Amino acid sequence: MSDAEQPDSLTPAKFRKGPFTYHQEVEVEISTITNLGDGLGRVDGWVIFVAGALPKEKVLVKIWHNAANFSRGDLVRVLVPSPHRVQPRCELFGECGGCQYQNMDYAEQLEWKRRQVTEVFERLGGLKIDVHPTHPSPKQYGYRSKITPHFLAPRRADFPIGFLATGTSRRVVDVAKCPITTDAINAAYGRARKEIRSNPGQFERGSTLLFRECEEGVVSDSRQIVTEKVGKIKLKFLAGEFFQNNPSILESFVQHAIQLAKASGAKHLVDTYCGSGLFALSGAKDFESVNGIEVSAEAARKAAENATLNGFVNCRFIAGSAESIFKNIPVRGPETAVILDPPRRGCDEAFLEQLHNFAPRRIVYISCAPDTQARDLKYLCSRGWKVISATPFDLFPQTRHVECIAALERA
Fold first, then answer.
1. Both 265 and 208 in a single domain?
2. How many other C-beta atoms lie within 10 A of the C-beta of residue 225?
3. 215 is catalytic
4. Is residue 228 part of a domain?
5. 207 with 307, same domain?
6. From 96, 99, 274, 368, the catalytic residue
7. pLDDT in tens, 354-400
8. How far apart are CA 240 and CA 237, in angstroms?
9. Positive or negative, the Cα torsion across 222, 223, 225, 231?
10. pLDDT digits (tens, 9 = 90+) for 269-279
11. What does the angle CA 141 – CA 392 – CA 255 come to, to the nearest 5 degrees?
């Protein structure tokens, strides 16, 4: 038995036997990065995932996990660096789980996000598509207009307040300031940290905080009604509700979707999963009529109020049931473009079948999860649709996250 194979008394009981021992150091050449932002390399054909490693790098790795067909290791040292490696701005990069790409120059981040959309479309959707270059964010730092820091039940005076550590769901990293967040939020967050630490006895349990920068300033009450402006459109909603949080790119992101819908020649626009009405109202001036659909009656009501706020009289918002989402739409599908922006889990087949049967002139599918988007596009393509355009947008620079806008027409 070699020294590397000798059992180690410090090896955790749950460490699985494999090609490497616990904390064995190995040299790995990184060939690619995964959609989770980890470097991927192979040693004698065996896959090793390494957070913080970049493609074309040779790195020294300390193994901490073996699975049935791969291992995971911590990056010990970069032996041969990538030409695209840069110095992260945040000293907590690699420990805090918020960012994955601060060590990669921005042009290369955009290229990898395009590649990842291309690869997941082909692997999960069977779709060989010429994905357009990733649309860059005007701001690469200081762009986030909403953060939700956490802290667990205080057990010491300097208990951590911040974000989850990389690869965990419980450990919180103490983050005093976040470089991808706006200056106004960082200032408000800093004040809140001091107030919380000055009286930890008021907290028997942990908590999740909210900081959203909007027209009202920085808001921390999730039930407060706030205002966001995207282009010329004003939208009011509750501070704790979902709303895209990179204002610097949002107008171009929305307009790309609207232009794809408009270019179809459709007279009418239908916005499913319409929320507070962002896409519906942004397209109102370009179509004879706009119909927004929401399963939530409260969300549909708020969207209608936002239509009134912006002076649009050609918009109608409907609280539709999941079983008959297009039942009360007063326009014909062939004269309509449909925008859908579902949650991360994507659409179920019942919705996609209803969408197919509605037979719109064009579908514009917006997604924050290219994997579920690829699955749904595969289903639509099996029913006679064809993807005619796919463009990633970088709403979250320095992170692995990417949004993608795809357009479909009948083949």
1. no
2. 14
3. no
4. no
5. no
6. 368
7. 999 999 999 999 999 999 999 999 999 999 999 999 999 999 999 99
8. 8
9. positive
10. 999 999 999 99
11. 85
Task: Evaluate whether 133 touches 404 at the Cβ level (below 8 Å).
Answer: no
Query: Position 397: which residue type?
Result: P
- Give, in order, the Cα–Cα distances in Å from 290 to each of 58, 101, 264, 273, 356: 54, 39, 15, 13, 19
* Look-up of token digits 């819908």: 261
Written as six digits, the tokens of 56 are 């074309």
- Strand order across the beta sheet in which 217-219 lies: 146-147, 211-214, 217-219
Residue 272 falls within a domain, yes or no?
yes
Within 10 Å of residue 232's Cβ, how many Cβ atoms? 10
On the CB side of 53, CA atoms within 13 Å amount to 34
d(CA 386, CA 363): 10
Question: How many residues in the chain?
Answer: 411
Active-site entry in 57, 228, 294, 403: 403
Task: Please check whether residues 159 and 274 belong to one and the same domain.
Answer: no
Look up 251 and say whether it is catalytic: no
Q: What percent of the chain has pLDDT over 70?
A: 97
Domain count of the chain? 3
Determine the Cα–Cα distance for residues 147 and 386; give it in Å rounded to an integer: 37
**Tokens read off for 34:** 């995964």
DSSP state of 154: -
